Amino acid sequence: MTRRARLWVLAAGLLGTAALFAAACLRMPPFGGTWHPYGDRAVAAAIAQRTANTVSSVNFDQRALDTLGEESILFAAVLGTVVLLRRTPDERRVAPQPASVPPALRRYAITVLPLALLIGLYVVAHGQLSPGGGFQGGVVVATALHLLYIGVDHRALERVRPVGLYELADGVGEGAYVVLGAAGLLAGSAYLANTLPHGTFNTLASGGTVPLLNAAVGMEVASAVVVLLARFLAQALEIVDEKTVDEKEEKEKE
Amino acid sequence: MREALDDTLVAASLLLVAAAATAAALTRDPARQAVVLSLLALALALALLFTVLQAPDVALSQLAVGSAVTPLMILLTVRRVRRRRRRE
Amino acid sequence: MDRLLPLIVAVPLLGAAVLVGAGRRMPRLAAETVACACAAASTALACAALARATTVVSWAGGWRPRHGVSGGIVLVGDRIGLGLAALASVLVLAVLAYSWRYFEEPPRGHSGAFPALVLLFQAGMCGFALTGDLFDAFVFFELMGVCGYALTGYHVEESRPVQGALAFGFVNSLGSYATLMGIALLYARTGELGMAAIGRQLDAAPERDALVAAAFVLVMTGLLVKAAAVPFHFWLPDAHAVAPTPVCLVLSGVMVETGVYGVARVHTTVFGGPGGIPAAGTRRVLVVLGVVSAVTGAVMCWQQRHIKRLLAFSTVGHTGLFLVGVGLLTDEGLSGTCLYVLGHAGAKAALFACTGILLARLGSVDEHELHGRGRDIRGIGLLFALGGLALAGLPPFGTGLGKAVVEEGSAWLPALFGLVSALTGGAALRVAARVFLGTGERGREEEPETAGGEEEPETAGGEEEPETGRRIRLAPPPMVSVAVALLAGALAVGTVPALAEATYAASSAFLDHAGYAATVLGGRAGGGQPGHAAAAHGGAWWTWTGAALGLLSAALAVVLAAAAVVGLVPSRGWSAPLRRLHSGHIGDYVAWTTAGIGLLSLLTLW
């Protein structure tokens, strides 16, 4: 198609879609109303399960199967990235050059790193009580580790990041969720049933399986993001085509 | 009074998101798009919107992913692609 | 069994977790064994659930409905959902067996990566087939998509697989966004996410307004993208032509069909009642899109010389027929489609399996380049020809039975089904005759058409690399036996009366909007016992007319193939405009997808 024809087709389609969607939105219940059948049910159930953060109760208890699927999507996406960004036979690995970092940036990164790590772990551990949980905390933990790359350099990051170990943790996190679900079956209830004692409302030890599932997801997400960024870093810094290396060597010879 | 304030806040954050997203779409340089817009404008505007709509869980995810992981991935991709292009 | 139903999804997930976690330390043999064991366990569970007389309803987490409402997620193992899960699992097993040591070298340090992705793919398809919750269906739909994109782009050394995966990812993601928006609209109206619950709420206060119509269009868009209905189909040939051949078995054999299943499931459970979309509207949407897809797919299929691309277009054509069959909204239409899907999965997967052997042995999938070079593997040629005849609807293949049963629905159907079957089957037979018998002239190297200035030269398939790393001399026994087993399966579908009878009963239960809600939310035993409905109806079985029409379309396919080989029927050139639309330009595909949403709205609201 010519560019013009493509734009016409696109415009017609977008116009139709927008008209349909706008007409539908006009028929929606008004914003900020008081009728929330699902929300009311979810809050009642969350309180009955002694989970202070209703969102966590929905994610890890009432609709825990969705979260298994979502965790698996991230798991599959990272695995897919590992496969797609692998080093192919016509590529070679070179050691990246050490980079010089302004001292101020270095000081900042080294100071913030433990703080960010702690916040991440806190967010994972308090998922059943306050906003956050395995997904959010896991990403924060993974991001915190990468402050080393920003503050020092890639080699410093590599020292604290044996990718193999994180891949193991990735698998363990995903597997732990599946197995925790099966524990519900072994306890005589349904798959992913919250069979543990519910504990005291609004304390760390509450919510039954919710904190455990949060921990599993936190582990999976943190290591998955580390593995994911490791592939991107390797592609950007280390992996070069054979041709480039040959050219460089030739130049050095000259 | 409170409702009026709430509505104003929601409307303001929606406008902010729309403006940031439009600016992100109009920026042609991918590196700038990643850093300036994802990091500063769009990610924060979305996080603000979710907070105003009383969804702090979602806001936290948005902040963690949108302002750190996504821009880093885009920047690394741009770097890899540019390196290859320079060679050709 | 009720409680064990989620394990059909969980076991492959656990397998994938083990393969990734232990990937670096695991020898390849162990990794492939673990993968096969998990896929087989899941298959066995699905079959065990199928053997039960009633629908299996399993509330995850034990969140059973109280007073008819629940905040939890339900898995519903009715006959058709379980049947699809079982089909997907069997094909995944076939893929794992077929690719046993198929790839020369797995990614360094990741011997389990390919099987792990395949297992995740299986979990996605089984979850999608079994869930009775609209949002959960979306989640598993995405899981299926992510694995599909990664598997399609597996050969990153070349640019075309990456391009194909990108087109696949772009168009499917667009469809997913549409589906998510539709789910949000339904949630805003009903405050529910379960399919049965949404349907019940819509029926409680029937308002057939713009919101319901928009939700229908948007939810259907994502499913139709997966089902590759025209004009959402552009990604499919690009992706299937470049994906590793073992992956094509699953992509063409069952993943595309899950889209059709989703359309049927969502229509009956959510929109099938008085508060949904009138049956006439749904029928119009599905039949119109189905006919257009069927004709487009068949015509494009006939024109291809890249064998994998040819088979991919035949999938577009056949999926169009499935949409027509489902769109009739009758018991016969649906049960015929189910049989057709089963038969097609066997035949199409077998054809891809044979193509994989060709690629591994001769290093090409170009019909012209391979001319006569398959003479020494006539056995494979025989399998390929049988697959082609099965596509053409030859009795007693399952495809023929399904086609015959659906065709009884209306007087114009035999013409459409016959044409599509003959063209797609004929194209496969033409390939078989040229490659394995060496009949006809060796195709002239025609100048690639360049029209419009931006068109890529035609995809020929000569530059494909053998995926096995080096060329093989003898086809390894697993590859051949998988192809034979798949064809035998396609044959069994058309020759076992009990299967057809059970399918018919399952179909009438499937289409029962109120019955589904009562089973899921009210705990009523359901599932359509084979015997009641089927005995009254006599089941859906071969009739003399059906068999004769099947023979006719198969004969027509042979005639077409013969005529093409001797040069009487031009295989290309007469439909350049249609071919030019399949440009490979992702921007075009995106434009067509949005236009498709507009088209869907027009057809729905007419």
Automatic annotation (TrEMBL), chain A:
Residues 106-226 form the Na+/H+ antiporter MnhB subunit-related protein domain. Keywords: Cell membrane, Membrane, Signal, Transmembrane, Transmembrane helix. The chain crosses the membrane at residues 72-88, 108-127, 133-152, 172-192, 212-234. It is a multi-pass membrane protein. Residues 1-22 form the signal peptide. GO terms for cellular component: plasma membrane. It is found in: Cell membrane. Belongs to the CPA3 antiporters (TC 2.A.63) subunit B family. PANTHER family: NA(+)/H(+) ANTIPORTER SUBUNIT B, NA(+)_H(+) ANTIPORTER SUBUNIT B. This is Sodium:proton antiporter. It comes from Streptomyces triculaminicus.
